[in-house]
Amino acid sequence: MLEFLTGAGLAAAAGLNAYIPLLVVGLSARFLDWVELPGAWAWLQNEWVLVILGVLLVIEIVADKIPIVDTVNDWLQTIIRPTAGGILFGTGTASETVAVTDPAEFFTSNQWVPIAIGVVLSLVVHTGKTLARPAANAATAGVAAPVLSVAEDVSSVLLSILAILLPILVVIGLAGVAIGLVALVRRRRRRARESAAEQGERSRSPRA
Fold it and tell me: What is the spatial distance between Cα 187 and Cα 128, in angstroms, rounded to a whole number?
């Protein structure tokens, strides 16, 4: 159970920001003695990989806070975030932090299963973020972009840390992310209905 929660927390965090959980896992494995990655994922703690992830994170943080650019960035991340989620779920379910050193011990011979689960979880979170952000930007003239981006980054950091240190609390974090995304999607739909209604009223109004 804890293995699944660790993987799920890291995958969901990747759906918000691909590079934060990758960095958290890589740095934890490099500097914390009690975190050990399985051989297949040991490259995450390589110093050059960490530097590259850090640079990509800076770019992501800046781009995600600029209206319109954030939407373009979300579409570009449609492949990157789910891929990171698959890697992280496989890493989390096989890490020493949850007392499992070989993915095959937990998923028998189906080593692709944790990666597929991670991809799906991350894609779901990413899709919700991608659909909700344009509506929030339109409703606030772009003011919401940096605010939502900061909230998403903080959520990604917290989920990543909880997944490693206290995986049982990942349930609460996932619930919070789900509630936030549902609220944003509902707001988007409501705004779309209001806009359609306004256009309908204008089309029915008599011309002078």
Answer: 12
Please report the beta strands in 28-141, taking only residues with DSSP state E, as ranges in sequence order: none
Tokens of 115: 């990666």
Those residues whose C-beta lies under 8 Å from the C-beta of residue 89, and which sit 6 or more positions away, are 7, 8, 10, 11, 114, 115, 117, 118, 119, 121, 122
pLDDT digits (tens, 9 = 90+) for 137-170: 887 777 888 988 998 999 899 989 888 887 777 6
List, for the chain, all residue ranges whose pLDDT scores fall below the cut of 50. 95-104, 106-109, 208
pTM: 0.76
Within 8 A by CB and 6+ apart from 27, the residues are: 45, 50
Read off the amino acid at residue 174: L
